[in-house]
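Changelog excerpt

This revision adds worked examples to the README so contributors can see how folded entries look when concatenated. The first example is reproduced verbatim below.
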Amino acid sequence: MPNTEKSRLNKYLSESGVCSRRDADKLVEEGKVLVNGQTAVPGMRVSDLDRIVVNGREVAGREKKVVLAYYKPVGVTCTEKDRHAQVTIRDVLDYPVRVTYAGRLDRDSEGLLLMTNDGDLINGLMRAANYHEKEYLVRVNKAVSREFLKKMSDGVLLRDLNVTTRPCVVKEEGKFLFRITLTQGLNRQIRRMCRACGYDVVSIKRVRVANILLGKLNPGDVRALTNAEKQELYAEVERGGRRPAAVPAKRENAKPRTLSADASARGQKSDKSAADQARPGSAAQRSDVRRPAADRPGGRKNAAAGTAAKHTRTEERTPRNGERDLSRRYAAHERTGKNAGADRSAAKGV
């Protein structure tokens, strides 16, 4: 049954396996695309009901959406057209349907690549603002230290790109091996981060993209995603990754409150309360008028007891407030930890 939903011509040709969107735009500009016998124009919308001819050959129609998990070996370049690349993804992945990668891996890295003919899925996964997770196993040339792990997880200033990486989850896996989960895709990001911390990368293997695992695939292996995997993947792309929506963006760069700041705020509040009590006709004074003289804070009977109780309450309250402040800061770190910060870098890959 033909798909009557209309889409832009370049997207239609891409989903039909003819060429990429960019190449489709070039073909349209060169007048090599006909729609229902008329020369196509950029931006026009078509469906399977239209007769589309490219370079004299009729387009059969849009293909069924395919999503593949592919283990990219070391030495393969994620590109379709690069005369300087010795081995490209096109050279090693022969599949009946034209697919392309949703997120790059540099030539010296290996591991999971998602390959698909769904342009919307590719755009959703590669958009850094969606905070989709990508997990890697990284081997370095020196023993992994706690200081190194902390620097990597807190975010590293990449001076050559003039950007600080987002905080991320980093875990030691061996003496020279660690696991890192990123939510952005700066160019050769892990290698740059390690170099900024005084380490050199020996190998990088990507083991997860969103909910899809590399699993037991060997270099060069490819498999189609199961229906359950695709449903979960599309659901995640639809909701824009796992970024916590409840955290306002302006709080990402806000300075955390310190215990001294809280104490100062409490002191100001106490000074204000004392001033209110001293003000003639205040609520505190009006309440004192209604209470028996013996029960008032200034009464001779309870003056000493009232003062002692006041100091006791203050001493008990201060550590609890301090603990509560630390709890808030820790909870905020947990909420934003791997998802804090943002970048507008257009460069992709790790």
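The second example, added in the same revision:
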Amino acid sequence: MRDDPIVEEIRKIRREHTDKFGGDLHAICEDLRHQEKESGREYVSFPPRKVSEEFAESSERK
């Protein structure tokens, strides 16, 4: 597989962000929420989708 410089840059930024908080997922998420608020951009979230009956039945069989 060919190296993609954009993907590598994103991975580098993620690693740096993770290292900044010592891998503490709670702190990372809190920082990301803070960045969203400070950005002034409008963010939307959608309610969870309902699981279709067909998928629910197939999952129960496993």
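Reviewer comment on example two: The chain has a mean pLDDT of 89. The chain has one domain: 5-60.
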